[in-house]
Amino acid sequence: MISKPRRRIATALATAALGLTLLTGCGDDVDCGLDQCTVTIQRETNASVQVLGVEAKFVSADENTVTMDIAGEQIQLTKGQQAVDVGGLQVTLSSVTSDAIQLEIGR
């Protein structure tokens, strides 16, 4: 039987490993918390980032709507719209500028 101190250490290590797994793939254009990331993608053809184990790729945009390819699925996001479920993630469009778009992606 495992003693309580060893069990606590094992639990702490498992929690730390889970946190690192969730943060994997977060880069300069991705700011991650424990279960959600803010993603900034340039409005360029084929611009993309890796986040929470999936690729988020810019397709097109206008003033309020963005078309993205996330986890191989093409979706349209509208500013102010509720989160869209794609690839097991919740995706929300935060902002659209002439240079970049910003998304919130969470589990």
From TrEMBL:
Signal peptide: 1-27
Keywords: Signal
Organism taxonomic ancestry: Bacteria, Bacillati, Actinomycetota, Actinomycetes, Micromonosporales
Protein name: DUF3060 domain-containing protein
